[in-house]
Specification:
By secondary structure, this protein is of the alpha/beta class. It contains 15 helices and 9 strands. It has 2 domains: 247 residues, Aldolase class I (TIM Barrel, Alpha-Beta Barrel), CATH 3.20.20.70; 68 residues. It has an 8-stranded parallel β-barrel, surrounded by 4 helices. Helix 8 links the parallel strand 8 and strand 9.
Length: 328
């Protein structure tokens, strides 16, 4: 039985349109939604319904909730739990200053008792799997991390995903994957690992080294929407398990080729129109292509061109023009 593959929650990226794109390549085992603000969801703004779209595979979808208020998070979690989904995830790992300053995200890691109280309030109102995504903490203190996670486990959390960097660390600092393996040994519940999975080969290495119970991929899945299918195919070649539909679909496509890159970009724009409101088109398109253009020789030049455009039709025009002029 292979280690499950998860799509990480990423703002303006892991919405339904992108999840549909991943499904084109075979998908993964769990999709974590982009952060859903508990306060905004309860306020019932006109755009909030787009954050809670459950397609294309509701049975794989995990809603991630972010907030700083016990009552709001509990109520939001209870509401989301009534929708068709695989689980509810509480964000205790976002290190963005704007999030932390409000007391949300990684700010929860400052207090074991406060975090434990939050879970004690959320657990009774959530029937589905309850999970938490977090970082190592504010200091390099494994003992504190263990105590923090054991409290979450005692309050009813069923899965923890560790992004093994400090709250203050950026992506240039390598993720401490040894912390994932050590934490797994300390807890009774599954521990997923997230960080520095830059290729299908890296995904497979983590899946095979017994350091975690699941592997979560973030930015690399945006750059390479075929990464999970490639990982499954690599595992198949190593005779780890019997093939499934993800790899069957991926074998029909020459992933990474120029034609597939062009086609995938156009497919994403098509899905964006189908699955997102017009208010989200430009921000979501630019976020996606900001990563996806890394597949191309002149990717930075193309990013700059795309970022100057203000309509989806102009973004599509620039994208098509690039491939007419460049046959790499």
């Amino acid at each position: 039985m292979r280690v499950p593959f998860f799509l990480a929650p990423m703002a303006e990226l892991t919405h339904r349109a992108f999840r549909e794109l991943l499904e084109d390549f075979g998908g993964c085992d769990s999709y974590f939604s982009e952060m859903i603000s508990a306060g905004a969801l309860l306020a019932g703004g006109p755009l909030e319904k787009w954050y809670i779209e459950t397609g294309p595979r509701p049975e794989k979808l995990v809603f991630q909730v972010v907030g700083n208020d016990f009552e709001q998070i509990s109520r939001a979690a209870a509401f989301l739990d009534q929708l068709e989904c695989a689980g509810i995830d509480i964000n205790m790992g976002c290190s963005a200053p704007l999030i932390r300053k409000t007391g949300a995200g990684a700010a929860w890691m400052a207090s074991v008792d406060r975090a434990g109280e939050l879970i004690s309030r959320v657990r009774p109102v959530v029937r589905r799997r309850l999970s938490v995504k977090l970082r190592i903490g504010f200091q390099d203190d494994f003992e504190y991390l263990t105590r923090f996670c054991r409290r979450l486990e005692a309050e009813g959390v069923e899965l923890i995903t560790l992004h093994p960097r400090l709250v203050s660390e950026k992506f240039k600092r390598l993720a401490r994957w040894d912390y994932v393996g050590r934490l797994k040994q300390e807890l009774k519940i599954p521990v997923a690992g997230n960080g520095d999975i830059i290729s299908a080969e890296a995904l497979v290495r983590r899946a095979q080294d017994s350091s975690c119970d699941a592997v979560m991929v973030g930015r690399a899945a945006i750059r390479h929407p075929w990464i999970f299918a490639q990982g499954i195919n690599l595992l198949k070649k190593s005779h780890e398990f019997t093939c499934g539909d993800a790899e069957t679909r991926s074998e029909e496509r020459e992933v990474g080729s120029v034609s597939i890159i062009e086609e995938t970009g156009l497919r994403f724009l098509e899905l964006l129109v189908r699955c997102q409101p017009p208010e989200f088109y430009i921000s979501r398109a630019k976020r996606f292509f900001g990563f996806f253009c890394d597949n191309l020789k002149w990717g930075n030049f193309l990013k700059n061109q795309l970022n100057r455009e203000n309509t989806l039709s102009d973004i599509e025009k620039v994208w098509r023009e690039y491939f007419r002029e460049n046959t790499e």
